[in-house]
Amino acid sequence: MVATRSDLMNFFSHADIRVQTVDHEPVFTVAESEKLHRDIAGAHTKNLFLKDKKGNLFLVVALHDATIDLKRISGVIGASGRVSFGKPELLWSVLGVQPGSVTPFSLINDREECIVKPIFDAHMMKEPILNYHPLLNNASTAITASDLLKFARLCGHAPEVLAVSDEAQSSMQAQEIMPDGI
């Protein structure tokens, strides 16, 4: 059975995960959601539901304006060959959400089989507050980065924090160049 927003909020409450939700008009793309950024505090995000050649599934989550090279990402996330976007029917059958409502909170619908591998961009995880849809794209729910990790783990997943965006890659390269103490 697919979890509802109410089920998700109850899960947060029982797990002692504090969230704050703001209702708004449905948004289907990152571009459409940009008008909400000034009204909703915290970092805004995008979510990519990906599939590799062997059928492995990934949920890549990054900041809304992150640059992600789908040709390069395969090696970073441990995919077999190139990745492509998963079809809407597969998204619904595994995560219980429609395109436009993809969210890491949909991991609540993959608790039994844990088919999807959650990948959180390292650059995004530096943000103190992150916003995601609470299973439908007519609201945004704010959560801390540490509670996002806790949520994914409580859903039975082993989330990975990896440098999947160009911004995270650049940040890592800058850290390698800078000597300690500067």
Structure, described:
The protein is of the alpha/beta class and 182 residues long. The protein has helices at residues 5-14, 30-33, 70-77, 88-95, 145-154, 166-177, and strands at 20-23, 43-51, 57-63, 84-85, 116-121, 129-132, 139-144, 160-162. The mean pLDDT is 91. The radius of gyration is 16 Å and the shape is globular. The protein contains 6 helices and 8 strands, in the order αβαββαβαβββαβα. A hairpin with a 6-residue loop joins β6 and β7 (139-144).
List the SSEs and their pairings:
Elements: H1 5-14, E1 20-23, H2 30-33, E2 43-51, E3 57-63, H3 70-77, E4 84-85, H4 88-95, E5 116-121, E6 129-132, E7 139-144, H5 145-154, E8 160-162, H6 166-177
Parallel strand pairs: 2-6, 3-5, 5-8
Antiparallel strand pairs: 1-7, 2-3, 2-4, 6-7
Provide a concise account of the structure shown:
This protein is an alpha/beta fold and 182 residues long.
What is the oligomer described by this structure? single chain
**Rg, nearest Å:** 16 Å
Major sheet details: 8 strands, mixed
Number of strands: 8
Number of distinct helices: 6
Average pLDDT taken over every residue: 91
Name the overall outline. globular
Order of helices and strands: HEHEEHEHEEEHEH
What's the end-to-end separation, in Å? 53 Å
What structural category characterises the helix and strand content? alpha/beta
Helix content: 25-40%
Sequence stretches where pLDDT stays below 50 over 5 or more residues: none
Strand residue content:
15-25%
